[in-house]
Task: structure prediction
Amino acid sequence: MTNKTMMQYFEWYLPANGLHWRRTQAQAKALGEAGITMAWLPPAYKGAAGDQSVGYDVYDMYDLGEFEQKGAVATKYGTREEYLAAISALKACGIEVLADVVLNHRMGADGTETVGAILQQSNDRNRDISGVQQIAAWTKFDFAARAGKYSDFCWNSSHFSGTDWDDAGKRGGIFRFEGKTWNRETDTENGNYDYLMGADLDTDNAEVIEETRRWGEWYLDTTGVDGFRLDAVKHIGFDFYRNWMEKMCAHRGRDLFMVGEYWSKEVARLTHYLDVTKRRLSLFDVPLHFHFYQAATSNGNYDMARLFADTLTGIDPTHAVTFVDNHDTQPGQALVSFIPAWFKPLAYAVILLRDAGIPCVFYGDYYGIPHDNVAPVTGLLTLLKIRKNYAYGAEQMYFDHSSVVGFTRAGDEEHENSGVVVLMTDSAAGTKKMCAGPRLAGRAMVEVLHGGSNIMTLDGAGAGEFTVAGGSVSVWVAKEAAADLYLMQ
Ligand code: CA
Result:
């Protein structure tokens, strides 16, 4: 068994040159060699901003870069053929593919409709602040250029619950459509957080339920993806995805890997969502991301012993997808909370080398973000290769100090020279006695992130006194493994 390792294969500011699918295809082999086993690709369907769209302003989910819509045939990332070729290339290299699914809203409608609507108080969407008013809502989607290919479904106001723009009065606001209610159970921020943006899908509507099932089945059949990354799940009635996921797995005839984006620092909200959806999916460990952010921005005063307290990794590791940053937390984006460079190697050592959770490596950390002069994370490729080859076996945690914390992996029989020792500090340099277990007794362990001169020979029990420099992480592997790592570089 190889460790599962996900990569988010895009960042927000990829150049809009239509070349991303071809790059994905070209890089597939290198990614497989680096230990990536699952690639989360960006939304592949036409957005309202055409070939400039990152993909979350969903316009037509059947247009994967095939129809002249929104000013272009291709999407920001390329054409349908290039997308399908990229998926094939990844799968040929042993990498499963996750499609990004945005079912909360639609944008860029082809026309407006006159709809009765009630203004809602923006910070309490359970509160009406007007009577019924006639507004011009962008809710009419005809997809004329696609002309019914793949699906003749057209969207109209009956399929949506609300919007944030009245085109007749040229005014914004949260408008709930007459006769509609917000989804019964969503996140309770702003009273009821069903509404996020655009024309909000009424996921209680029978036609919407049927159409999103048909689309999902078409998508599975067309692309052959292995699973889904589900966008904005806290803004969609919690029973919707529970049913949709069941239908997708039934259609494919097997379990599909799915991970949901529930953006909340409160782990209880995440575990509640897992409860409601019967743990059919995993969730990104958003609380852990914020622990990283706090640790990285507290001038060495963060209590590292609490890094996993109240995180999904700490509470339900088998349903946690761990990550350091993503396209929403990078500089310039809505949820910006980008982990400072000095802490990134610490965070990646934690998510890549521990047993708990499935780690997701961010494209912008792997390749850098030229748009913001962000460099690739130092040592990330080395950490990935250690994960792939050596981070196996029982885990021993030493999160017992406010600054200097670490863990060991004992290694296993299946992976030659496996076993890892990790020590880090958010503050001053420190030492810690840690035990890697009897498999590594008497072995020389070489620190591989800082040049290879820090060597520790373990005692007869597999223990040693390890040292780490201030504000850094050190990672030791067996000397024979270190030699292999150098050969792999
Ligand atoms: Ca919604």
Remarks:
- Residues 104, 194-196, 200, 235-236 surround calcium ion (CB under 6 Å).
